[in-house]
Amino acid sequence: MLLRHTPKEIKERKALSINPAKTCQPIGAMYAALGIHGCLPHSHGSQGCCAYHRSALTRHYKEPIMAATSSFTEGSSVFGGQGNLIQAINNIFTIYNPDIIAVHTTCLSETIGDDVNQICQKARNDGKVPEGKHVIHCNTPSYVGSHITGYSNMLKGLIRYFSKSTGIKKDQINIISGWVEPSDMREIKRIAQQMGVKIVLFPDTSDILDAPQTGVHAFYPKGGTTIPELISTGDSKFSLALGKFATDAPAKDLNSKCKVKFKTIDLPIGLSATDRFIVALSNAADVDVPECITEERGRLVDIITDMQQYFYNKKVALFGDPDHLIPLTELLIDLDMKPVYILSGTPGKGFELRIKEILAESVPNAKIKNGANADLFLMHQWIKNDPVDLIIGNTYGKYIARDEDIPFLRMGFPILDRIGHSYFPTVGYSGAMRILEKILSLLMDRQDRDSLEESFELVM
Ligand code: SF4
User: Fold this and answer.
1) d(CA 71, ligand 1 centre) in Å
2) 371-395: per-residue pLDDT in tens?
3) How far is residue 244 from each of residues 176, 178, 240, 383, 448, measured CA to CA in Å?
């Protein structure tokens, strides 16, 4: 019982988080920057922060994560990190030759008040940025928000620096992706291709964080949104922003900078959210939905019909990122399951309201919480008071699952104790099929494990 000290009795807490259901802003900024071709993320702070961010991403994606750091010491912590960053920019272009250095800040550089925009400008003025190369930045103070805030902030930085409007619209749609796996980004591109829609997907970590093993190390793998594509986002005729918490603000920025109209919708996780994505893409590009997509949907509906009897009324606790939890909760309702506890460490208005709307008819008394005090300690207390049949969340949920002996589905970020998750999409109709298959396997494995010998069935 690793969590044996978690009491059943719930007390109001204001100043203390225990086992937060989120991680730190720069990790999100780093992940977003990795989705740009030829881009090297740069952490403006101490080596420890950068090492932690890189290791969190490496452990999840099982790929070496390249990133540089300003390597603050005591001196830079007191007098500012301008000298370190300018020297770093010079060194990085000389040694590693990226097309873009994407600088994000850390708690330390934010607290001492480094003006990173001014420092980057000074580096350009001083000739430290070679012709045709770029240094961009965003602010990611980790004492507010979460990794999702950092991801969103880096997307805003990319738009601020690259997106340009020539006044002539291109026949293409921007898809601003929330934080999903490289395989999900690949799946979004596959769906758009099947629909015959030209898209600019950004960021795009496919073929970067799931690049094939060739035996030769590529410092900058072939994937990622390219600089010309990023520039052209300002001329696209529409933007679809997938996931309000990660992408609504960048889509708004692009609209105010380049007048690209947009619609923010949920990440296409599950049947209903994928339906909305397909309809939105079809409307934005003015194309019909092809038969192959309708058939894929039909297969998902068929699987749901076959499985529904096993899902009915099963209680679920889920935690993670809000853009995942909203469509996932909706999927569970579509399956006739009962999402009773929903919790996200990422702050932000509208989360609770949106989940309440989804659950209004089926689970009106569900417990929902987000923000700093929405932590796994509280989730464990909820479960101790009234257990569930399934937990869905990142690796950190395994402690609760073990102590309470509850089936556990790993979804979200980070997954540190399994391999392969980033290679299989959970978005789209085929992604939903995979989620369903995993949930059912967990529930039936449990039934097999717990059934008496006389009721142990071959056919279930
Ligand atoms: S929370 Fe702040 S100090 Fe800690 S790793 Fe993240 S940026 Fe660094």
Assistant:
1) 14
2) 988 999 999 999 999 999 999 999 9
3) 10, 8, 11, 28, 40
Check residue 3 and report its DSSP letter: T
Q: Is the C-alpha dihedral spanning 72, 143, 27, 129 positive or negative?
A: negative
Which residue's CA is the nearest one to ligand 1's atom 3? 107
Cα 367 to ligand 1 centre (Å): 30
Helix (H, G, I), strand (E, B), or coil: what is residue 176?
Answer: strand
In terms of phi and psi (left: phi > 0; alpha: psi -120 to 50; beta: otherwise), the region of 353 is: alpha
Alpha carbon nearest to ligand 1 atom 5, residue: 49
Q: At what angle do helices 291-311 and 182-194 cross, to 10 degrees?
A: 130
Q: Which residues of 329-343 are buried (b: 16+ CB within 10 A; e: fewer)?
A: bbbbbbbebbbbbbb
CA of 409 to the centre of ligand 1 (A): 28
CA of 278 to the centre of ligand 1 (A): 38
Tell how far the Cα of 142 is from the centroid of ligand 1, in angstroms.
Answer: 6
Ligand 1 pocket residues where CB is under 6 Å: 24, 26, 49, 52, 106-107, 142
Closest C-alpha residue for ligand 1 atom 7: 106
Alpha carbons 438 and 445: distance in angstroms, whole number: 11
Tell the residue nearest (CA) to atom 4 of ligand 1: 49
DSSP 25-46: HHHHHHHHHHTBTTEEEEEES-
Nearest protein CA to atom 6 of ligand 1, as residue? 24
Cα of 147 vs centre of ligand 1, distance in Å, is 11
Model confidence pLDDT, tens digit, residues 138-165: 999 999 999 999 999 999 999 999 999 9
Ligand 1, closest atom to CA 52? 5
Which DSSP category does 286 fall into? T
Contact 274, 428 (CB under 8 A): yes
Residue with tokens 């909305």: 276
Q: Cα separation of 193 and 123, whole Å?
A: 41
The residue behind tokens 């990794």 is 147
Q: Which atom of ligand 1 is nearest to the CA of 107?
A: 2
Q: Indicate the pLDDT class of residue 14, thresholds 50, 70 and 90.
A: confident
| 1: pLDDT strictly greater than 90 | no
DSSP-assigned letters across all residues of 387-424: --SEEEESGGGHHHHHHHT--EEE-SS---S-SSGGGS
Amino acid (one-letter) located at 3 = L
